[in-house]
Amino acid sequence: MPAPSKATVLSSSDAVAHLASYQCLDGLSVKDLMDSRVHGGLTYNDFLMLPGKIDFPASDVITDTRITRNVLLKTPFMSSPMDTVTETDMAISLALLGGIGVIHHNQSPESQAAMVRAVKRHENGFIADPVVFSPNHTVADVLDIKAHLGFCGIPITETGCLGAKLVGIVTSRDVQFESPETLLGEVMTTSLITAPQGVTLTEANQILRSSKKGKLPIVDDQGRLTSLLARSDLLKNQNYPLASKDPSSKQLYAAAAVGTRPSDRERLKLLVEAGLDIVVLDSSQGNSVFQIDMIQWIKQTFPKLEVIAGNVVTREQAANLIAAGADALRVGMGSGSICITQEVMAVGRPQATAVFAVAEFASKFGIPVIADGGISNVGHIVKALSLGASAVMMGGLLAGTTEAPGEYFYHDGKRVKSYRGMGSLEAMEQGRPGVSGEVNGKPGSTKHAPHLSSKAHENAATTRYFSESSAVKVAQGVSGDVQDKGSVKAFVPYLHVGVQHSLQDIGVRSVSELQAWVKEGLVRFEIRTPSAQVEGGVHGLHSYTKRLYA
User: Fold this and answer.
1) Which residue among 59, 320, 323, 445 sits deepest, i.e. has the most Cβ atoms within 10 Å of its Cβ?
2) For residue range 25-34, what is the model confidence (pLDDT) as tens digits?
C-alpha cells in the first residue's frame, strides 16, 4: 500500500479537533444497541462498552446507589432470597460490606423473623430495644441469648424491663464456669459506668473508648435504663466503613422476601415486628392481581416499609406495579444459572434487554430497578448498571461462599456447596412433613449435599411459581452444586474494587455519572459476535490457572 502524500497527512496537533468531522462518536449509543428489531434480545455477553479517558484513580470511583425510593447503599450488591444463598450470615456479612442480603422465606415465619432480628441487632448506634434481664433470671437465660443472637452482654434492671432502674450488667466473663441454674443477681457486675440520657452518639462513643468497657448503658436522671451502646459496634464501624445502615437508628438494613398469599400477610407482620426495613415480593411473574393487592395492603398497613416488587421484564408489567405503589422493581425471568423458565415455559426475556426496557420506563417515575439473574462476573455487574439498573441481585455468584447456607462436601475432588433454583422440585418439597430436604442422598458420596429444613411450613417455591394447588409440579429450576468461593468478606470487596476499575476504564467517576453519560450517548457500546466473545476470553493455551483476586 503506497504511503500517503504529505499533502493528505494532517498535523498531529489537530487529531482531537478532527474528531468533530465525524457524524457520531465511535461505537453505538445504548438506544441503537438495544433496538430489538435490529439485534433481537441481548444478554450481557452480547456487547461491550468502549473505553473512555482515565484522569482519576480507581479509588475515587463512588459506587453509591439507591435500591428503593428511600434506601441508599454504598455498593450495588444484593443477594437473592434463595434457601441456598441468603440466611443470617449472608445478610449480616453483605450489609457490613455495603450491600444487602434478602432473607428467603422457604422456612417458617418464626424462623425468618428470628433471622431479621439477628441482622438488626448485629450492629447498632444506640440500641433502643436491648435484651434486658432481672436479677432473678439465670445463667441459662444468658447462654440461650448467646446461642440465638450471638452476644451475652446484657443489662440487668429491677424488673427485667427497659425503663426500670439499672442494677447491674452481665457479660461473658460473669457467666463463664457458672452453673446454668445460678441467678444473675449473684454473678452480675454492679460497678457500672453509664452515660446520661440525651448524650450524643459521638460523646457516648468517647465514654465507651475511655472506659474500656464492652457495653455503655444509657440512663435517665433516676437511673432507669433507656438504651445501650456496644463497643463491638465501634470496632465494626472501623472495620466496615461501607456498612448499609439506617441513618436514624444506625442499625444494619434488613431485607426479607415474602409471597403474595393471605398467609404471607401474617408472616410480614412478624417480620416488621422484628425490625424489617425492606420487603421483597417474591414471584416469578410479578404482574398479577395477587401482587398488586399485596402492594396496596402493605402501603396501607406499613406505610414506612419499602416494597420491592417483581419480577418483571416488560414496561407493561412494570407499569401496573409502579401504579400500585412499588418502591423498586426486580427485573429478570429465566436468566439465572439454575433457572429453566424460558426453556420450559417459553416465557421470559434476555436479561440485558429486559433490564434496559424496564429501567428506561421506571426511571421516568423515580423507581429504581434491580437486575436479578445472569450475573456471573464483574463485567456483568457493570453492564447491568450501564443499562439503568441501580443494583444487581446475585444468587449463583454468592452461592458456595462460607456465609451461604449448607455444608461443604466433595464432588469429583472439588469442595462444593449445594445450589438450587427455587423452581426446582427439591425446593418445592422443602417444608413438607416427612421431607428432609435431602437431594439425591448422602453428602460427599453422591452428587449433592443435603439441605436441612425447618419445621413444616407453606412452601415458598410453589407459591413463587403459582404451583401450590397443582397436583403435578412442573420444575422451573434445577439443583446442582457450586465450587467453594471462600468468604464473602474477601469476595465482595473484590467485586467492589472490580467495579471501580471498570468505571475508571470507561472514564466515569460514579454509578450515577455512568448512567447519565449512557443516556447522553457519551458512553458507547459495541456488539460482540460469537467469535469476538471467544477472542475476549482465555484462548490458545494448553492449560492455565485463573485467579480472580489476591
Assistant:
1) 320
2) 999 999 999 9
Mean pLDDT on 391-404:
94
Lowest mean pLDDT, pick from 301-315, 443-457, 491-505, 525-539: 443-457
Residue 524 neighbours by CB under 8 Å, 6+ apart = 25, 26, 27, 28, 29, 49, 50
Enter the DSSP assignment of 476. -
**CB 77: neighbour CB atoms within 10 A?**
29
- Tens-digit pLDDT profile for residues 454-490: 455 566 655 554 555 555 666 676 778 888 899 999 9
Separation of alpha carbons 269 and 288, rounded Å: 22
All three cell numbers of 402, joined, read 462460607
Work out the angle at residue 103's Cα, subtended by the Cα atoms of residues 467 and 350, and round it to the nearest 5 degrees. 60
Residue 468 CB contacts under 8 Å (≥ 6 apart), including other chains? 261, 458, 459, 462
pLDDT in tens, 65-121: 999 999 999 999 999 999 899 999 999 999 999 999 999 999 999 999 999 998 998
Q: Report which of 319, 427, 362, 467 is spatially closest to residue 80, judged by C-alpha positions.
A: 427
Q: Are 509 and 62 in contact (CB under 8 A)?
A: yes
**Whole-model pTM over 0.90:** no
List for the chain the helix, strand, coil content (%; round to 5). Answer: 35, 20, 45
What's the rounded Cα separation, in Å, for the pair 443 and 450? 6
pLDDT tens per residue across span 179-188:
889 999 988 9
E-assigned strands of 197-327? 215-219, 225-230, 255-258, 278-281, 306-312
Nearest to 461 by CA among 428, 418, 433, 419: 428
Cβ proximity of 415 and 483 under 8 Å: yes
Which grid cell is 100?
444487602
Residue keyed to cell 461462599:
401
| Residue showing cell 426495613 | 277
Q: How far apart are CA 80 and CA 100, in angstroms?
A: 10
Coil vs helix vs strand at 211: helix
- End-to-end CA distance of the chain: give it in Å, rounded: 48
Q: Which residues are catalytic?
A: 339, 464
| C-alpha distance from residue 19 to each of 8, 16, 519 (Å) | 16, 6, 21
According to DSSP, residue 3 is labeled P
**Helices in 34-81 by DSSP H: which ranges?**
36-39
